[in-house]
Design a protein that fits this description.
With about 425 residues, the chain is an alpha/beta fold. It folds into 2 domains: about 325 residues, TIM Barrel; about 60 residues, no CATH class. About 35% of the residues lie in helices and about 15% in strands. It is built from 14 helices and 13 strands. The strands form 3 sheets. An 8-stranded parallel beta sheet has the order 7-6-3-2-1-10-9-8. The two termini are about 15 Å apart. One of its GO terms (molecular function) is hydrolase activity.
Length: about 425
């Protein structure tokens, strides 16, 4: 591509949002069975004390909707109360609706299981029930000024294993639930538009023939959410916890997401990232947090970073994978860990700096099919080539092969040169 000698200085970028996925310190998400506003207030005060601006919160699907045609008002009121408590602490809130799946445990209402089994993605009655749940939650929350928005649920594609589904059925499911969430939130005050989003774990980006596709993540909903975890593709063990591949993983996830978006200006939210032991040893966790946040902040179009998670799971609770007990910024006694200080300090530093992010003028071409999507993941050819460029000092974007010759699209993203995976440097 012909080099343009005139470089336009980058415009000031929107302020980034920094927050945490709220995991209750006492009782984990089982605490919804006997919700205690006082305990929640303590947790939220600790989070706000780090200088963060938002939380992402989760109720449990079986408690919200124990029968297909019953959404419990008391459970909805609990959730609204938590949103109000967060607002009192100065925190904005994203609410996830259908849980679904959390930290290796699945939470299905009984009307979807055993004698009443329904595929939650394809059964029309089950899909409509979830849509109604989201409408009810949206109507209950729409008047809250501290509400960021409503997300369909946490990593819904984790439920694929027990609910076989095709790409076309996933698209219908997501479209139906996104429309329901928007309908529920339509009563918000004039001029206040809440986000409507959905999320998927990394298989959507790296998993060959996974029915939740990169296109669905990058084109449905109001922005793209990414959950770049260091255990996906065994990344941290493959390359080492201090490796560039690990420290730039969230940044890479943002750039992959941007490649699939139809709108070059579509925001991307690093909605989950964390430092799970033993993948990231405790001694390396502070530097991992600093590097992850700073590297992601170097992406144009980044909405923000939301750490997983606020508090460690208490070891009195049994049967969690080992890594789930160590993911918090605070331990299970409520004490801030070194990673909390590193995260908070990095956030404060970034807020104090003028935010001006130059476009990435070199892009790596991603050429894959649904059956070869793993080239994008750790160990894959695209991943390896991107990381090689990054360690050589290039700040590479990613562009799909189908758009590599689209001059207007490339110009809209500030891309001046495209590089094929096989070319290297």
């Amino acid at each position: 591509m012909e080099e343009d000698p005139i470089r336009t200085p980058p415009a000031p970028a929107p302020a980034l949002r920094f927050g945490v996925n709220y995991t209750p310190r006492r009782g984990w998400f089982h605490s919804w069975h006997d919700f205690d506003p006082g305990q929640a207030r303590e947790d939220l005060a600790q989070i706000a004390g780090l200088g963060l601006d938002h939380v992402r919160v989760f109720h449990l699907w079986p408690l919200l909707q124990p029968n297909r045609t019953l959404v419990r008002p008391a459970a909805v009121d609990q959730l609204v109360r938590l949103v109000d408590l967060a607002a009192e602490a100065g925190l904005d809130v994203l609410v996830d609706g259908v849980q679904g799946h959390l930290s290796s445990f699945d939470f299905y209402p009984e009307w979807t299981r055993s004698w009443h089994h329904r595929n939650v993605f394809t059964d029309p009655d089950a899909v409509e029930a979830q849509a109604e749940l989201l409408r009810v939650l949206g109507r209950a929350l729409a008047g809250r000024p501290h509400l960021i928005g409503l997300q369909l649920g946490n990593e819904l594609n984790n439920m694929v294993e027990h609910n076989p589904v095709t790409v076309q059925q996933v698209d219908h499911y997501l479209d139906t639930l996104l429309a329901a969430a928007r309908d529920g939130l339509s009563g918000a005050a004039p001029g206040h538009r809440h986000l409507v989003t959905h999320s998927a774990y990394d298989a959507a980006w790296y998993g060959d023939d996974h029915p939740f596709t990169p296109e669905a993540s990058a084109r449905k909903g109001d922005l793209t959410t990414v959950h770049p975890w260091v255990f996906s593709g065994d990344c941290a063990r493959r390359y080492g916890p201090r490796s560039p591949q690990v420290l730039h993983l969230a940044e890479y996830g943002v750039e992959i997401a941007k490649a699939y978006a139809d709108d070059p200006a579509r925001p991307v939210w690093v909605q989950e990232t964390g430092a799970p032991e033993p993948h990231i040893p405790a001694g390396d966790a502070p530097e991992f947090a600093r590097a992850t946040v700073r590297n992601a902040a170097g992406c144009t179009g980044l909405w923000g970073v939301t750490w997983w998670c606020s508090h460690d799971v208490d070891r009195s609770l049994a049967d969690f994978p080992e890594l789930e007990y160590t993911l918090g910024l605070f331990d299970s006694a409520g004490h801030a860990k070194p990673i909390a200080t590193a995260f908070a300090d990095t956030v404060a530093e970034l807020r104090a700096e003028p935010r001006s992010v130059p476009p990435r003028d070199t892009a790596l071409i991603l050429d894959c099919t649904p059956g070869t999507r793993s080239v994008s993941g750790p160990g894959g050819a695209c991943f390896e080539a991107w990381m090689r460029l990054r360690t050589e000092g290039v700040r590479p974007a990613v562009v799909l092969a189908a758009r590599a010759d689209d001059g207007g699209y490339l110009a809209a993203r500030g891309i001046r040169e495209v590089v094929r995976v096989s070319e290297g440097r």
